[in-house]
Amino acid sequence: MLAVIYIRVSTEEQVKHGYSLSGQEEACLKKAKEIGAGTLVFKDEGITGAVLERPGLQGALDACKTPDCKYFIVYDPDRLSRKLAHQLMLVETIEKEGCQLEFVNFEWTDTPEGRLFYSLRGAIAEYEREKFKVRSRFGKLSKARRGLLTHNPRIYGYRYISEKSTLEINEEAAAIYNRIVEMALSGAEPEEIANRLNELKIPGPGGGKWYRQTVRRILRNDSYTGTLYLNKYMTEGVKTARVTGQSLSCRLRPKEEWIPVSIPPLISIEKWQTIQLLLNSKKGNRGGKVYSYPLSGLLFCGQCGSSMHGNNSRNSKGKMYRYYVCSKKYGQVDRKNSVRCKMPSLNCEQVEKVVWDKVSEWLKDPEAMMRDSQDKKHIEVYKKEKVVLLNHLKDLNKQKERIFAAFRKGLINLDEFEAASTEIYEGRKNFENRLSEIKNKLAANEQLEDGLVRLKELAIQVVSRLESLDDEERSHVIRLLVKKITVFPGNEIVIEAAFAAVD
Question: What is the pTM of this model?
Fold first, then answer.
């Protein structure tokens, strides 16, 4: 007879509740010993309970399917999930596999009363967590406004003093930073600087090698001028998206919401600004030639969703060539959870020609953009589907009210109520997602009509001299007409028009 043991902890829970993996495991093993069962232990460390796609949890659920498995032991209901709906679904899944659910610090009884108490307890815990998040954020903002750091920003060249919530200069690392600055001011590029530091056996910020992007990120960081901005990025949902394999980046907040905190400066503002100009110039390795990358900021990898940036290098014959590369192709692979993208580098001339040919086609025949971006026969279908979806959502709201009324009157039991509520929730979620898609498509169609007028105005100005435009002018025209370019394996290129951007 076997018992599956599942334990989980995330950083904030360990601080708030004093949970630890070892403590949970010890308590769960003791519970299994009392039952008289052998054990299989599955762990999730540092993973939020807000998502179900956790490696340890999925492994534990798979283990439930083995014939000898009779028990599923968890320290506390919170370890299963932070969300009540997820908790209830997991309980049902575990029991369907013939396993008896056992909690260490919660008495679980599979009765209507026990399930009701379990649901109420989960709802209260979920409420407490949300309240804690609000209080925690308020406390951090108040602390930041007093000029104190709310966390360790991990800036190379500084040492975090947790007792004072401040940074002090790390003299050894600061000396390396100054060396990087001097090399950059002398004209060395980030790749050259990284190679030089590696030759000198100087360890990087993580203790490993130096990389071009590491040097570039350090040189771009304006915190070294003496001001670190907190509350600069919106990070809500980023961690959850990363766990579920989705692509969601931190969003920049409006500048008026940033909170400045003073730290010891390592560089003057004038020197830092000079370095930015040098970095923006994108000089070649020899001869000081400037290379342009008109698709930078517009080009995205179809394999992993990351942005692609321009670079240059010499081939085996010593000739310099330009290429676009995925930002995740070369990185600090020794970092936790870091994965290199396998998207091949793109020849700049080839991909730029494809994009410019399409833009030229739009300018010579503005109606072509309309044809490329609008499927008129679907517009009416979308409008009709929108009406149908809105009616479905109204029906679901009425169903929800009827089910709740039936539960209050005792016409259905808790199991039936939970099953019906879950079905309604999933249906509503699907309808709302589809409705959002349709609204975006209809909005894009309206935007297209306005964009066509502006496109015709732009075409009159430049169509007669398309072939004589210089690199800067071509880049300007591309950015007026193109919103996003995605390149997929096999060199399939998808170009999205940016109608609202056409002025």
Answer: 0.39
Which residue has 């000898």 as its token pair? 68
**Largest interatomic CA distance in the chain:** 86
Q: What is the DSSP letter of 256?
A: G
Any idea where the domains of the chain sit in the sequence? 2-139, 348-501
Nearest CA to 275 out of 312, 225, 227, 226 is that of 225
CATH placement of domain 2-139: 3.40.50.1390
**How many whole angstroms separate alpha carbon 147 and alpha carbon 379?**
54
Residue 390 near residue 428 (C-beta atoms within 8 A)? no
Q: 163 in helix, strand or coil?
A: coil
What percentage of the chain exceeds 70 in pLDDT? 75
> Both tokens of residue 285?
């390795």
Asked whether 363 and 357 are in contact (CB, 8 A), the reply is no
How many residues does the structure list for the chain?
503
For residue 222, the 8-state DSSP code is G
User: Token match 């993208």: residue?
Assistant: 341
Structure token pair of residue 188: 């060395």
Q: Are 283 and 187 in contact (CB under 8 A)?
A: yes
Tell me the DSSP string of 15-48.
HHH---HHHHHHHHHHHHHHHT-EEEEEEEES--
The average pLDDT across 123-150 equals 72
The DSSP bridge partners found for residue 161 are 166
The pLDDT value recorded for residue 332 is 42
Range list of H helices, 346-470: 348-364, 366-373, 376-408, 414-462
Query: What percentage of the chain exceeds 90 in pLDDT?
Result: 16
Other CB atoms within a 10 A radius of the CB of residue 201 amount to 6
- What does DSSP say about strands 233-234 and 482-488: parallel, antiparallel, or unpaired? unpaired
Kindly state the tokens that stand for 75.
């320290």
Coil/strand/helix, residue 246? coil
Residues 6+ apart with CB under 8 A from 243: 47, 48, 51, 53, 54
Q: Is the pLDDT of residue 26 over 80?
A: yes
Q: In the numeric block, which tokens belong to residue 243?
A: 């766990």
Q: In this structure, how many other beta carbons lie within 10 angstroms of the beta carbon of residue 57? A: 22
- Cβ(382)–Cβ(442) below 8 Å: yes
Sign of dihedral through CA atoms 233, 144, 256, 274? negative
